[in-house]
User: Fold this.
Amino acid sequence: MKKLVPMLLLACALAAPASAQLRITITSGVTDPIDIAIVPFARAGVSDPLDVAEVIQRDLESTGRFKGMPRSDMAALSKPTTAAEVVAAEWKQLNNDYVVVGRVTSQTDGTVRIDAELVNVLTGLRISGPYSIVPAASIRNGAHRVADALFEKITGVRGAFSTRIAYVSVDGKPPNQRYELYVADSDGANRVRILASPLPIMSPAWSPDGEWLAYVSFERRTSAIFVQHRRTGKKTMVSARAGINGAPSYSPDGKNLLLTLSGSNGNLDVYLLELASNQLKRLTDDPGIDTEAVMSVDGTVYFTSDRSGNPQIYRLTPGSNERPKRVTFTGSYNARPRVSPDGRQLAVLTQDGGAFRIAVQDLATNNVQVLSKGNQEESPSFAPNGTMLIFAGRERGQGVLQTISVDGQISARLDADAGEVREPVWGPFLP
Amino acid sequence: MPPNRKLIQFRWRGYALSILLHSALVAAAVYGWFTWKHRAPDVDTLAIEGSVVDERVLKSIAAMPEAPPEKPPEPEPVPVPEPEPEPAPVEEQGPPAPDPAELERKEEERLAQEQKQKEEAEQKAAQELKEREEAERVEKEKQAAAKAAEEKAAKEKAAAEKKAAEKKKAEEAAAAKKAAEEKARLARQAELMKSLEAEERGNAARNSSEASQWRAAIAAKIQRNWKTPPSAVTGVECNVTVTQVPGGDVTDVRGIKCNVDDPVLSESLRNAVMGASPLPPPPAGVPFERILELTFKPQ
Assistant:
């Protein structure tokens, strides 16, 4: 006991320095966007007047995670084009977290090199790169690639600005309507028409490698499913069975196509078509309507069914004899399921107080969050990095392309420069 | 001279000799009894050795220079009284006939007896001398052993005394060391108590409501500046050590340790702290703390 007391005192004394420090616990942060100043890039020998810095800023801002410094606020500041020229304190004083500077330089081989440098004005850390070398006609794509890299450096999530979207545009009024299938940059720019028809084109779907598009066409007066190569335009009809052929979507390995067939009796069910062998496998067999099937990375199939009386989302595992299980229970209408790239979230079109809106359901907790605020929205589709969704909204009675961050914070309208826009679908990452 | 007369003369001579002999025997017996009765105890006998010294010699010695002291004289053996010769048995008889041959024979016997007695006495004396010498040797050995034992005892005593002295010295040194250690321990204890008291005072200040408000103000400012990346989800926990200077300016953010390896998350924490700099100052009465230990636990 005599020795115990000094030992205890010693123990207390040794512990004392630790307790002499102030301990503070922080349990939350903010979802405020990161303040970033993207200074106009220096240009050298480039004829394209594209404002690369502006493209990058719009890309970053579209995610809702960044807030770009308005150009007007930069008026009084010097315009550095290299990280070494950035006076961090100056930019920090204007509440910026990061500054991006860069240069667009024409190269002797006709390509254009875009260099960017990132400066963390809070810590003073300077990060060289990223850079992108693109053909002179693709500076915009180069800018998207630089934005991808910046987004990943700051958020840790791979950027998806250089990916593509596909959508259907309908122009004109019946009976003289014109249907077109477009592929565009993720921001809606650089659209390329890959199919046009006076008869309906519906339900475009990307192959996992981004090279093919599957869609439903009525060009044969009846519904048929085609797959078409994006760049060559080569197309193949894969299903033109009796009755309805609809709602195609690729399996994650790209070898199979999920589709909806009615058969001669008109009962819609979900099938799995192996593209190489053209073998068909029935996945559902229910008197109700089963359609809009999509496969998750883990092989689970989610589809819409009205077997309970109202459209709801169900899931099944191909090859299993288990009955499909209902997934959605919020509201009386949940349709058009799309699963996130990581398989953890399900985007659906839900009826919310009389309006049709885009909602996201967490598949682990079944929490549902309605993201959009419109009245007549449709066709949600995840970006390949899972941070955003694209869907078709309506403005002044016309379908438009819209994006929204998965937390619902930021929504943007894309300039489709087209008529009625329907069924957008976000493509995969490109190599 | 007539034969009767000569015979009578021989007879008287025989009587006389007989009486003399018996007297001698009686005297020897008495002496032997007396000696046995008054035998000296078996103790070391101190013998006094005496020598007949001529006075002239003494005078010559006195005239000589002083000689070194002589070794003490060896003790003389105890004188043993010589036994009386056994008297020849005397026959009780009438006056023997004076026979010259008989007389001569007797005389020879007597002489032989005397010779025998003399030899026996010499043997006895030799035996006694031998025994005495043996006794002396034994005594010497005993004395030598006693002396050796005494020396050994003395040595042992000296060694024991030396050992005891050393032990005492060691005990004194140990006692002094213990006292010094105890003093040092008490000093340390006092110092610890002092720091503990200071710590207590600091803790009291730190645990005050004002200190809590200060912590909350710092947390709130950092929280407002923590733009959480997608990876900042429930279950993630990070610890960060922040150094500030009076005035609240953050000078260092280091030691970021998270339970996930995520450089973007780490940078977001660094940005949160640096973005919150300068941190709110402590209210009056609350000690300023240079080091802050932050724990980020998104919930």
